[in-house]
Amino acid sequence: MDVAYRGATVHDGTGAPARPGTTILVSGERIRLIAPDHEVPADALADAVSVDLAGRHVIPGLIDAHQHIATPPNRPLAEAALRRDLYGGITATRDMADDLRQVGDITRAALVGELEAPDIHYAALMAGPSFFDDPRTAEVSQGATPGKTPWMQAITDETDLPLAVAMARGTFATAIKVYADLPGHTVAAITAEARRQNIPVWAHAAVFPASPAEVIDAGVASVSHAHLLSYQSAAPLTTYKDKPKLDYARYTDGDDETMAALFARMRENGTVLDATASLWAHIGQELGEDADAEIRERARANDAISAALTAQAWRAGVVLCAGTDRDPALEDPWPALIDELVYFVERCGLTPAQALEASSRNGAVAIGAEADMGTLEPGKLANFVALTEDPTADLAALRTVTDVVKRGRRYERAGYVHPAQEASHA
Description:
- By secondary structure, the chain is α/β, with parallel strands linked by helices.
- It is built from 15 helices and 18 strands.
- It is globular and about 65 Å long.
- The two termini are about 40 Å apart.
């Protein structure tokens, strides 16, 4: 059955002006037509269910480009967080390595509509052997040996890379994530083999000892965590756990020349920056006044670097997507992604419309799904959000969701009860 969403002001995410009085005609999972209300053929409307969106603003579904939904695996928590995300306007998310046994099943259930959740695109992880004493790797490898599973592999110069990449692909992962404790030549070798097998590589911005420049020159599709880019100017890089001290001031006193050269390489290579820009601000808030002074100062300094480098990257023309990398706080009825977008505006110089583009069109580029999502165009998935206020004027409007459509399925915000409400009604 076709559905005609009528009367909306459509912000299609392509950069075109907003279109008032517009119909989005959905057939199955996909958009069939977007046109002024009065231009929609009568025969198309005759066979469609009509939904009145007069007075509403419609934007492409949001994409959280950096989440972890199974570290450690907790199915009820993951489902609750993902449901909150969907009803908050997120129609796709990128899981940046977890226990893929659970993530794979949640992905399937979200895809076919068994769960109210965004579509999930996930990564299998590769890192150097020394990384695998990290307790998180044990959490996501329960019943197996960390570093020796298809979704979490330890890589050395002796590793059979064609087999390792094939094993990662066998998890149905969208990409391989390169995390830590690998030299530049190994990052390049992994990326080259992954390209041969038609699977992209997502990486930390610094892999230790691989520098940001080595990671970018390897040809990875995206790099995560803006603050890690600052290690391009630090030496020597050894391991993920033994990071050198940074000269914080050099990055916050204006555009840095070393970073300018790095951003030029990213722009030329089409490398997407998954900045997770607001992460350190929230870490600082969560620490509280009783936390160790040195730890609080580190969070403050990393927050300042994140804001400064994200802003410089944006001014340099680097493609910026929006990810959170934050554990869900279920008492908040709205996704953490909204905070990231507000941070882009308040701390990094983006306009609300540019922040929305980072979380829709650029998010789709980051997960390699721009042919299907990220903008509202005929033929693409029917992933969009209806709001009572205009988010291109003020991102506070993102908390005025009335309807979310994902793959043609409509979810009404009025029907959503978040966990804090459930507890209060118990």
